[in-house]
Design brief:
Layout: E1 2-4, E2 7-9, E3 13-15, H1 24-32, E4 37-44, H2 45-49, H3 53-57, E5 68-73, H4 77-88, E6 94-99, H5 104-107, H6 119-132, E7 137-146, E8 149-150, H7 152-162, E9 166-173, H8 184-193, E10 198-201, H9 207-217, E11 221-224, H10 244-261, H11 268-276, H12 285-294, H13 298-307
Parallel strand pairs: 3-4, 3-11, 4-5, 5-6, 6-7, 7-9, 9-10, 10-11
Antiparallel strand pairs: 1-2, 7-8
Helix pairs in contact: 1-10, 4-6, 6-7, 7-8, 10-13, 11-12
The protein binds flavin mononucleotide.
């Protein structure tokens, strides 16, 4: 069990924010398969402030996905405070602040990883969000700017002092992007330096590995991102089923959730991408993926997947 603020999270396993992937259908699926908390894709504070429809669509939620955290990104404390006031209306259980995204379109405006270069600004942002938020606020950051400039410990202490309810550390640096491996030593160091819950993140590919990482680092929670794609069983001790017959119910459920919550005609490329990911480890899987990518519409895709069950 994990306690964040006053909220009990049933297990330490959390679905990471994944831009382009961790939308409502995928979050619901991961909750059904054992993720105890799910985090939205990063949401632009400006998009919220200016009521941009693309951003507002990202706030789609459903009672059965709770607890859910909505993640905000931005670099201006005042805008972040205003965006928080908007987020309150959508009743998340937590608001997370992105202080680790290395994407150029985010960092060039001073947000995400770029905040690691300006801890004072990061502090102002955190205080501004906390001042407006109806729910506990958490921070997600990286090990540091590069190998020589580790910022995670300073960020964790600053976050704790400001009143953040938890901190997530992805054990890569900004300069690493997604290359190399995550350094879990930094997760242990952060854990030793604060009393708020520390959530470790980076390269966890199974439930068992998550438990081992917790034991080694002493961290309180495990966040899993890429390994959950096409594999919601990563949140379960038994892991991914070894045969196609047991994989298909998850694919069919995911398609059903996408049908319920997405505009399936417009999002076909996205749906094919999610669906194709379930079929990476079986003989004949490349032919299945080819067929998925060739499906002209959602209904044909759905009937193709159903045909695999027979
Ligand atoms: C496609 C993709 C999108 C991501 N989007 C976000 C995001 O919106 N916010 C964020 O804080 N991190 C984002 N991340 C980083 C992940 O949350 C996570 O920190 C990183 O992938 C390491 O964890 P993993 O090895 O379990 O994937 C993203 C990563 C990927 C691969």
């Amino acid at each position: 069990m994990l306690l964040i603020g006053k909220k009990n999270i049933a297990s330490p396993f959390i679905l990471a924010p994944l831009a382009g992937y961790s939308d409502l259908p995928f979050r619901l699926l991961c909750r059904e398969y054992g993720a105890a908390l799910v985090v939205s894709e990063m949401i632009s504070c400006h998009g919220l402030m200016y009521d941009q429809q693309k951003t507002i669509r990202m706030l789609a939620s459903n009672p059965s996905e709770h607890p859910v955290s909505f993640q905000l990104f931005g670099a201006d404390p005042e805008s972040m405070a205003k965006a928080t006031a908007v987020l309150n209306n959508y009743s998340p259980d937590f608001i997370d602040i992105n202080m680790g995204c290395p994407a150029r379109k985010v960092t060039k405006k001073g947000a995400g990883s770029a905040l690691m270069k300006d801890i004072k600004l990061a502090e102002k942002i955190l205080l501004a969000v906390i001042s407006q938020s109806n729910v506990p606020v958490t921070v997600k950051t990286r090990a540091g700017i590069d190998k020589k400039n580790t910022t995670a410990i300073d960020f964790a202490k600053m976050s704790e002092n400001c009143g953040a309810a938890a901190i997530t550390i992805h054990g890569r640096t900004w300069s690493q992007g997604f290359r190399g491996t995550a350094d879990w030593g930094i997760v242990s160091e952060v854990k030793k330096s604060v009393t708020i819950p520390v959530i470790g993140n980076g390269d966890v590919t199974s439930h068992l590995q998550g438990l081992l990482r917790m034991e080694e680092s002493g961290c309180d929670g495990i966040m899993i991102g890429r390994a959950a794609l096409g594999n919601p069983w990563v949140f379960q001790p038994e892991g991914r089923p070894g045969n196609m017959r047991n994989i298909l119910p998850a694919v069919i459920r995911h398609l059903e959730l996408m049908e319920n919550y997405l505009d399936t005609d417009r999002q076909l490329a996205y749906i094919r991408n999610h669906t194709g990911r379930y079929f990476s480890t079986f003989t004949g899987s490349s032919q299945i993926r080819k067929t998925i990518y060739a499906c002209p519409d959602f209904h044909e895709l759905k009937s193709f997947i159903s045909s695999l069950t027979t």
